[in-house]
Amino acid sequence: MSSKRFKKLPQKTKNLGVEFFEKLLPQLKKNCTTKFDESLDLSFQINNKQKKSELNIRTVVNLPGGTGKKVKVAVICEDNKVQEAKDAGADIVGSDEFIEKIKGGALNFEKLICTPGMMVKLSKLGKVLGPKGLMPNPKLGTVSDNIKNAVTNAKSGQVEIRNDKDGNIGVSIGKKSFSDDQLIKNYNAILETLEKEKSNNTLKGDLIKNVFATSTMGVSYKVKLGKSI
């Protein structure tokens, strides 16, 4: 049953004309009528021409406008690099003893970074970390000897772009409280990254069929691909 708040939001948005994200942004923010700072989210539908079972998009993008979220970052590294990780701003840092804690179910972090030298030991925990999407991956910048850079990226506005089994991609580009300029820059950064992934996957035709934008507790609008400005 819809709440009184939701019933006041625009109805039948599917019947509205498709518009560029920049044009839809004022309405998306207007629909954020809850008391908390709602997220603005994008949902991409992969073109039917692509074989979804063979499509494997998994990468990261550094959003120029940030994410508005505080990310709890953990680092597994050699003992002589522990202080470097702490200085970089990591919330949890450890070596062999930390791996044992993870093995026991201690997953009180949102992003895990590991040095290449420790990955041999950590890789044995694939069944624990994999289902949670926490296993470090060189492609995502979470397996690195440059701990400072990896931690900084994880905390400053880096998001993962990954398609699900049906070929859909969902990603948040910020909060209602962000300026329009921040959100537009983040949106464009996502589009540019997806365009690069299309080239990397040697896909035929267009990668994206449809894009929809919504706020956490709002309604969905179909977005016209590209930039209006």
Structure, briefly:
This protein folds into two domains: 17-67 and 159-224, Ribosomal protein L1/L10, rRNA-binding domain (Ribulose 1,5 Bisphosphate Carboxylase/Oxygenase), CATH 3.30.190.20; 73-156, Ribosomal protein L1/L10, domain II (Rossmann fold, 3-Layer(aba) Sandwich).
CATH class type of the largest domain: Alpha Beta
Oligomeric state of shown chains: single chain
Using the coordinates shown, work out and report the CATH topology of the largest domain: Ribulose 1,5 Bisphosphate Carboxylase/Oxygenase
How many whole angstroms does the radius of gyration measure? 20 Å
CATH architecture of the largest domain: 2-Layer Sandwich
Could you describe the 3D structure shown?
- This protein has two domains: 17-67 and 159-224, Ribosomal protein L1/L10, rRNA-binding domain (Ribulose 1,5 Bisphosphate Carboxylase/Oxygenase), CATH 3.30.190.20; 73-156, 3-Layer(aba) Sandwich (Rossmann fold).
- The protein has helices at 4-7, 21-30, 82-88, 96-103, 119-122, 126-129, 147-156, 180-200, and strands spanning 19-20, 39-46, 58-62, 73-76, 92-94, 111-114, 158-162, 168-175, 208-215, 221-224.
- The longest helix has 21 residues, at 180-200.
- The chain has a five-stranded mixed β-sheet, with helices on one face. It has a three-stranded parallel β-sheet with strand order 5-4-6, sandwiched between helices.
- Helix 3 (82-88) packs parallel to helix 7.
- It is built from eight helices and ten strands.
- It has 229 residues and is an alpha/beta fold.
- The radius of gyration is 20 Å and the shape is globular.
